[in-house]
Design brief:
The chain is α/β, with parallel strands linked by helices. About 40% of the residues lie in helices and about 15% in strands. The two termini are about 35 Å apart.
């Protein structure tokens, strides 16, 4: 396993981060035993960053993670989130941050988390997040309940604005650096590098679209993007290549990302991520993938409050 510094935190994290969206049955039903075996296998393979949220499965992910991580908590850099608690349930107030973390700690069966991040900040008031949410997280940090704090979200420019306006340690951007997108590097990556903020990349499979199975029915991407994803899967099939393997491999090459968070459902999918670290695609296939993606490259979809929609994305 390869490791990188998580910004200026003093902590090194694995190139592969273990995301637990699947623990919340968000991509289909999984068993507790599959969760346990997958996570134990990942830890044994050197994966040390584990990411969850009370939103995933509406606390189910945290509950399962707390159960399967019992006895090995000390081996991982454990992160959870605050502010988002349901599909359209957001509360970034100080009271909600404090109350939310207490619930997370109980479910995770731990006295502290290494990372606490405000979840999907584009759905809240950015000024509230800067002036109320982040200061509340700083107070939790002072109390020893959190080691590092940050923000997550869809729009790179919003995350960059927050990073330049408040003191944070880490940030996670999803769906903006993979085979279909790279505009994280326009707004966010330079800020993270300059301020030594730990940069985490989420959704290397574009929330499932690049995995070869069409993605979940609730996926918000435009029909044209879904069509390109299907063509990508077919192209990979022509070359005898697993599309998920190729998509993960591409994300693992980013020089500034400390960890790329994947969402394995079982041991086999952990192995897929591990294989992607050493996978070497043919130059011909990569050229054809580039040509396929070019017409729709960096196409976003609406996410968050209307006032938070970046005009140039």
């Amino acid at each position: 396993m390869k490791y990188s510094a998580l910004g200026k935190t003093g902590v090194n994290v694995s190139t592969i981060g273990f995301g637990t969206v699947a623990f919340g049955d968000e991509y289909g039903t999984v068993s507790l035993e599959d969760c346990r075996q997958g996570l134990m296998y990942a830890i044994d393979a050197g994966i040390n960053l584990v990411d969850t949220s009370p939103y995933y499965g509406r606390t189910l992910s945290e509950e399962r993670l707390g159960a399967v991580l019992d006895g090995r908590r000390h081996e991982v850099v454990l992160g959870t989130k605050c502010g988002r608690y349901g599909f359209d349930q957001f509360d970034f107030s100080e009271a909600a941050v404090v109350r939310g973390l207490e619930g997370s700690l109980r479910r995770l069966r731990t006295e502290y988390v290494d990372v606490l991040q405000a979840h999907d900040v584009e759905f809240g008031s950015i000024e509230q997040i800067i002036h109320e949410t982040i200061p509340a997280m700083h107070r939790l940090k002072e109390q020893g309940k959190v080691r590092f704090i940050g923000v997550t979200g869809y729009w790179p420019r919003i995350l960059a604005y927050i990073a330049e306006s408040a003191s944070i340690d880490v940030t996670l951007n999803y769906c903006h650096w993979n085979l279909m997108m790279d505009d994280m590097d326009v707004a966010l990556t330079p800020v993270a590098n300059r301020q030594q903020i730990g940069l985490m990349n989420g959704s290397p499979l574009h929330m499932g679209l690049l995995g070869g199975n069409g993605g979940p029915p609730w996926h918000p991407a435009p029909a044209g993007i879904k069509a390109v994803a299907a063509q990508f899967a077919a192209l990979c099939g022509e070359y005898g290549t697993d599309p998920a393997l190729l998509a993960l491999h591409a994300c693992f090459q980013h020089p500034s990302v400390a960890t790329t968070v994947v969402g394995p459902r079982n041991v086999d999918e952990v192995n897929d991520a591990l294989e992607a670290m050493t996978f070497r695609p043919s130059a011909e296939l990569m050229q054809k993938v580039s040509e396929l993606m070019t017409p729709t490259f960096n196409t976003s979809w609406p996410s968050g409050l209307p006032e938070n929609q970046p005009t140039l994305d």
